[in-house]
Design brief:
This protein is an all-alpha fold and about 500 residues long. Helix content is about 80%, strand content about 0%. Helix 12 packs parallel to helix 14 and helix 20 (about 420-435) packs across helix 21. The longest helix is centred in the middle third of the chain and has 68 residues, at about 240-305. It is elongated, with a radius of gyration of 32 Å.
């Protein structure tokens, strides 16, 4: 793609109207478009947004999308020479492949960890990955694919002077991988192997063959490695003129390589600068839009006050009161009917001794009793002509049983830290009941995502960020990004650190 205009439209639409994982897929497509036009930082943000919106509850579609998301993120980190970040993304990618693809695809996905561990120069991990991948592919009968995995081990064994192991891996790779034609030329894209082959020849004192492979390495564009190899050759031969010549050539190749690395770094910094500048411009535009909306709403309100009359206000209040009472009575009737139905089902189930089903029904019955009491109290209040005060009661929420359960999860090692979905629902429902004003702010305007809302409630419970990461099963970076987005949506502050204090200040402003 040469523009991100279409994918921006998709993101805006599916954020509001999407079902299931449609919003997740829209953000993934948007990230791919941003990669195509060279905006890697913005693409990473789009991928993080896609992860936040993925619904992985018994849903393979989500894992198929996330497989692409984490694969793209790993590629970005690899190009930016960030091996630790690439490893984290690769591990998520591998997990998604395990859940959605074949055993062979899963093994090959694991082998892709060779690249970042090679950059980190972790030779033991590289050898371990090669060994595991080789044996697992062999067990599946994929002999050529298994042999293709062993090439990096040849260089490691040669550098350690473990020549018997190096020879074994070399014969396996060159004879069984299917990567070589009848003339001994390796398949396109793997020509870097010629340098490894040359170093092996140096180690076994086959100097003429080493020179042949190093020159082939240069022929295919691997200048720095090729010239370094030729320096080894002419040192072995004691040819001082050639040593001087290829020292100059090697130095020039190294300078060219460093220049390219600096150029890439400058491009990355420029991309990050453009992203930061566009974010600031977007924030200014949003702030101006908020001011315009405030002025517009104020003008409309003033006009309504002038045009309205006391008679109309009285009629409107009466109509709303009747409508509210009717809705409350309907909800109350439905709750009573449901309670009676569950009581009857419980009586039948108890006679059949369905203990697990009985427990679930009894839990639902307790929730309905609570709902009925709340609806009866609210209905009586409206019938009596007094409006229920919409104020927050944070202390009631903090002292609730479900809130204390989550606090124990964050501190007590004997309690299972990751909640089940029912516990999440109970926590959000209790927060909504005790703090209706703050909850309404969560769900209006730029509404919080489910993850952002859960993180905000956990912060109000004074749970640490490390515990939040474990409870939500999200990485620290995802939690921090979600906090920053929530802070921006609620308070216009695009930072993670002040979200907790802003939430507490908001909560106690509207408290009784």
């Amino acid at each position: 793609m040469n523009t991100d205009s279409l994918t921006r439209i998709l993101v805006d639409y599916f954020e509001e109207h999407g079902r299931g994982n449609e919003s997740c897929l829209a953000y993934y497509m948007h990230g791919c478009a941003l990669i195509d036009i060279g905006w890697a930082p913005e693409a990473l943000q789009a991928y993080y947004d896609a992860i936040d919106r993925a619904d992985t509850t018994n849903n393979m579609d989500a894992y198929r999308i996330l497989r692409g998301v984490y694969g793209q993120m790993a590629s970005i980190f690899h190009k930016q020479n960030l091996p630790k970040e690439e490893i984290e993304a690769r591990e998520h990618y591998i997990d998604c492949v395990r859940k959605t693809s074949s055993k062979a695809d899963y093994i090959i996905a694991k082998s892709q960890l060779l690249r970042p561990y090679s950059i980190l120069d972790n030779k033991e991990m590289v050898l371990q990955i090669i060994k595991e991948s080789y044996h697992e592919l062999e067990e599946l009968g994929l002999h050529s694919e298994a042999a293709s995995m062993v090439a990096p081990s040849i260089f490691i064994y040669t550098s350690r002077n473990q020549m018997s192991e190096a020879e074994k891996m070399l014969n396996l790779f060159e004879h069984d991988s299917g990567e070589f034609d009848s003339l001994g030329n390796i398949s396109k894209g793997r020509e870097a192997y010629y340098y490894t082959r040359g170093m092996y020849c140096i180690a076994i004192k086959d100097i003429d063959s080493a020179e042949h492979y190093f020159r082939k390495s240069i022929q295919y564009g691997h200048l720095s490695e090729g010239y370094r190899g030729l320096l080894h050759v002419y040192r072995e031969r004691g040819d001082m003129d050639s040593i001087v010549h290829f020292s100059v050539m090697y130095e020039a190749a190294q300078d060219s390589l460093h220049d390219q690395m600096r150029t890439d770094a400058i491009h990355q910094m420029a991309s990050l600068y453009n992203y930061t500048r566009s974010e600031k411009e977007a924030e200014l535009a949003r702030e101006q839009a908020r001011k315009n909306r405030t002025l517009f709403v104020g003008a409309i309100f003033a006009a309504m006050m002038i045009i309205g009359s006391l008679c109309w206000i009285f009629k409107e209040v009466s109509r709303k009161k009747k409508w509210k009472i009717a809705n409350l009575e309907r909800d109350l009737s439905l709750a009573l009917d449901t309670r009676n139905k569950i009581q009857e089902e419980l009586r039948q189930l108890k006679s059949q001794d369905y203990e697990s089903v009985i427990a679930a029904k009894e839990s639902r019955l307790a929730e309905l009793y609570e709902t009925i009491e709340q609806l009866q109290a609210e209905n009586e209040s409206y019938i009596a002509g007094t409006k229920v005060s919409e104020t927050d009661n944070p202390n009631c929420f903090l002292n609730s049983e479900i809130a204390n359960l989550f606090i124990r999860k964050s501190k007590d090692i004997n309690v299972k830290i990751q909640p089940i979905e029912k516990e999440w629902n109970q926590l959000v429902t209790r927060f909504r009941t005790d703090n209706p004003v703050t909850y309404k702010k969560f769900r209006t305007g730029r509404a919080l995502s489910m993850l952002e809302m859960r993180i905000c409630i956990l912060l109000i419970l004074d749970i640490s960020e490390s515990a939040i990461s474990l409870i939500t099963d999200k990485s620290a970076s995802v939690v921090s990004n979600s906090k920053a987005r929530a802070n921006e949506k609620l308070f216009g502050k695009k930072e993670a650190t002040t979200l907790k204090s802003n939430l507490l200040q908001l909560l106690y402003i509207f408290s009784e």
